[in-house]
Specification:
Length: 158
């Protein structure tokens, strides 16, 4: 019993459709996985920048002759990087991350700490604009305390 031409054609179309869907899904899945890897890399880069620029600002506030241009560049980078992090913990981007699952499953506290860090770095930038060491130091204190709290709560220890 051989299949009719219609049955073979329908079967071939169904097979082609399935292969096409699998190929598209595979590409989409790969692209999504790649996007998440890129997001993780961007987060890690932002956190590295934040660490480095925080050190620049911390060292400058201890000097008697402050380089306000260096402080301005550092505070601008801190603002950019801390703001970028607001959108960098997208659902699905936890695979391969050093962050704990609770960042995504229970994000309320994490988001609050992230917002506090951002506010601290905004205060640093405002202090730099005013050339107010006291305001810069207050902003640093807020930002650094939230960094420490966040690391204790949300950074995986492998």
């Amino acid at each position: 019993m051989s299949k009719s031409i219609t049955e073979r054609t329908v079967g071939n179309k169904a097979m082609k459709t399935m292969i096409t869907l699998l190929a598209v899904f595979g590409i989409t899945h790969t692209s999504l996985a790649q996007a998440h890897e890129e997001m993780i890399a961007a987060r890690q880069n932002a956190f590295s920048n934040i660490e480095n620029q925080t050190k620049v600002v911390s060292k400058q506030v201890k000097k008697s002759d402050i380089d306000w241009q260096a402080m301005l560049a550092a505070s601008e980078q801190l603002t950019v990087d801390s703001t970028m992090l607001s959108n960098a913990f997208e659902t699905g981007s936890q695979e391969g991350s050093k962050a704990k699952e609770s960042v995504w499953s229970k994000p309320e506290k994490f988001n609050r700490l992230l917002a506090e860090m951002q506010q601290g770095y905004k205060q640093v930038a405002e202090g730099v604009d005013k050339q107010s060491i006291d305001e810069v130091q207050r902003g640093l204190k807020v930002a650094e305390s939230t960094c420490k709290s966040c690391h204790r709560s949300y950074r995986s220890r492998w």
